[in-house]
Amino acid sequence: MVVVGLCARGEVDGALKVFDVMTARGCQVDDRVCSSIVARFSRAGKAGTGLEFYERMRSEFSGFEPGLVTLTAVVHALGLEGRIGEMVELVREMECKGMYADAVLYSSMVHGYTSHGFLMEGLWEHRSMLDKGIAADVVNYTTVIDVLCREGSVERVMGFLDEMERQDATPNLITYTSLVGGFCKRNRLEDAFSIVRKLEQTSVVVDEYVYSILIDNLCKNGDLDRAFSLLEEMENKGVKAGIVRYNTVINGLYKAGDTEKVVKIFEGVVADNFTYSTLLHSYMNRDDATGVMAIRGRLESSGISMDVVTCNVLVKALFMINKVDDAWSLFHKMPEMGLRPNTITYHTIIDMTCKHEKIDKALELFDEYKKDSSLSSIVVHDCLIRALCNKEKLT
Hints:
Blueprint: H1 2-8, H2 12-24, H3 31-43, H4 47-60, H5 68-80, H6 84-96, H7 103-114, H8 119-131, H9 138-150, H10 154-166, H11 173-185, H12 189-200, H13 208-220, H14 224-237, H15 243-256, H16 259-266, H17 273-285, H18 289-302, H19 308-320, H20 324-333, H21 343-355, H22 359-371, H23 378-390
Helix pairs in contact: 1-2, 1-3, 2-3, 3-4, 3-5, 4-5, 5-6, 5-7, 7-8, 7-9, 8-9, 9-10, 9-11, 11-12, 11-13, 12-13, 13-14, 13-15, 14-15, 15-16, 15-17, 16-17, 17-18, 17-19, 18-19, 19-20, 19-21, 21-22, 21-23, 22-23
């Protein structure tokens, strides 16, 4: 079936076009087609659109009678949308029609309940499934474990892991990733690391996401040496770290003042705006004019289109190292770069202009700032008032 194949490849728009052509030619609509489209919308984060398609099916095709597969997809979509009452009512209707829930349907219900705060209801449904003799698989258990970890109830999770072993539902990487995140949430980093080391002794390959959870939490706790070591460990194992992970460590090192390690990491990654902003902050706070100019040069030759945040940081950095003309030139070029100065931009340049004894020029810029009704901040007014008071020009 073409529609099902397109949905499997994630091409839901193409699937809908084929569906419309098929139905216009009088082709029958079956359960598999409907479930594929509804499920694909859910996987694409558009569960509401999938439900709209289901309602269209019910209203336009009188001969269509949804089966267990389609209704399971609908239950899952209702859960994703937080329409818990409708989800429960639909399951009740299915039971009245003799459609008894299987492990997939229970997993959808548990996910719907727990993802919207109904933890006890979700756990009750999981237990109800087991009491009915329906064998839970790794997906069922991982759904429960994930929500318990997000709630910080890692102690309860250990019982579920034991139960999984008794049921021959072997935990997978997703299961263990949830557990690592749960331990980190409770600030039990050593327990999280023990899970990772245990995984390394199995056939399960630890991926970037698991490492990222550990690195993020190490940085939050200020253990930057260990975070840096984890990055090196990832590199040695061939696990590619994305720029977001590097930025987390770079930001932590910058806050700790370890510029040497920041530069070491920077030399080996393809930087983005956040990376350059962090480095500019680091050199600017150390009054390192050479470092600021070096990063500026790297940024301009990198081919990266600056965003307004990076531009604001560079403007401030240039002022602070007395490259006033360069700072003003960059400010005036912002429209050519497709950037619109925001409140932070104006606050930065008005404040710095005042500090460089150019009060009249700051007043002209303030008049320009006031013309834009979308920009309003007491901070901008305060910095100018203070400068005027200092110069005794307040009338």
